[in-house]
Design goal:
- The longest helix has 16 residues.
- It is elongated, with a radius of gyration of 21 Å.
- A 12-stranded mixed sheet has the order 1-2-3-4-5-12-6-11-10-9-8-7, with helices on both faces.
- Helix 6 links the parallel strand 10 and strand 11.
- By secondary structure, it is of the alpha+beta class.
Length: 293
């Protein structure tokens, strides 16, 4: 087919990234596919680009995806990027497409779901009420309360050693502006950010957290974001404790919520075990690919 690749203006720019976009169309102007390239802009990740290529099923195997990929790779190199990453569902056309074009498979993610109708509230309540000497739970919705803000920001380093396979992901540096910006972004979408945290009773500092984003109308499925515990406080069952509390609170506060979604790297057996014991069941797998530019 005669193919035209048109660069588009994409307004999806924020404090952490900006995006480039392209549209592939046939000779008659009919759209055949699109590509988006997210360019991370914060220090520590300004070497990285994230690719999303979509081709209409009827136009696959006709060079559309390759043409879009070529445009994105050229743009990434011109912008001085070192690495390009992309995610695709295991076994999908995108899986074979990326593998055939020089991308290396660097991580496998397992996606799971907990159906809240099947959640054992009594067992969850018992897990939440089980004492963890030296620690206590706290929680909030939206932006972190001022009195907890400093130690919550400091606790974000618990994510620094999160298993990421061989991805050249760089470092994510958190400060209070970024924490507040993330909460504001969730609220701006009309969703509810719910955080459960563990506090060290010896000094009142947050040492672990788990985040859940709930649809604004309280229906459908909610999405877990980060769950992490500072290295020096691991081994006490705090991740399981926090996540049990998050599930229990979601069930009580949003009775029409259907389920909770999460994804875990296959090389993170600890978090996979936490999810398994809480009743999360696999739905599908995805692969992270990386191309050195």
């Amino acid at each position: 087919m005669s193919l035209r690749i048109t660069a588009l203006t994409d307004p999806a720019e924020n404090a952490a990234s900006r995006r480039l976009a392209w549209l592939a169309s046939g000779a008659d102007g009919t759209p055949a596919g699109s590509a988006f390239l997210r360019l991370f802009t914060r220090p520590g990740q300004d070497h990285l680009a994230e690719l999303d290529v979509q081709v209409h099923p009827a136009e696959r195997r006709g060079g559309v995806g390759s043409a879009l990929l070529e445009a994105a790779v050229e743009a990434g190199r011109l912008d001085g990027r070192r690495s390009m990453i992309a995610q695709t569902e295991a076994g999908s056309p995108g899986d074979s497409f990326l593998a055939a074009r020089g991308f290396a498979k660097v991580l496998t993610l397992t996606y799971t779901r907990l159906a809240l109708a099947d959640a054992d509230l009594a067992a969850l309540a018992k897990a939440v009420e089980t004492p963890h000497p030296g620690y206590r739970l706290t929680s909030w919705e939206g932006t972190v309360p001022d009195e907890l803000a400093d130690t919550f920001v400091a606790s974000r380093r618990a994510m620094d050693d999160m298993p990421m396979g061989a991805i050249d992901y760089g470092t994510v540096v958190w400060d209070l502006d970024r924490v507040k910006g993330a909460a504001a972004a969730v609220a701006g979408r009309g969703e509810i950010l719910h955080t459960v945290a563990v506090v060290d009773e010896s000094d009142g500092a947050i040492v672990g957290f788990t985040e859940l984003v709930v649809p604004g109308d309280g229906t459908g499925d909610a999405q877990h974001y980060g769950t992490a515990v500072l290295p020096e406080h691991r081994g006490h069952g705090l991740a399981h404790w926090m996540k049990a509390a998050s599930i229990h609170q979601a069930r009580e506060r949003h009775p029409d919520l259907a389920g909770l979604l999460t994804d875990t790297a296959d090389n993170n057996p600890h978090m996979r075990h936490v999810n398994d014991t809480l009743g999360y069941l696999p739905t599908h797998s995805a692969h992270e690919y990386q191309l050195d530019l």
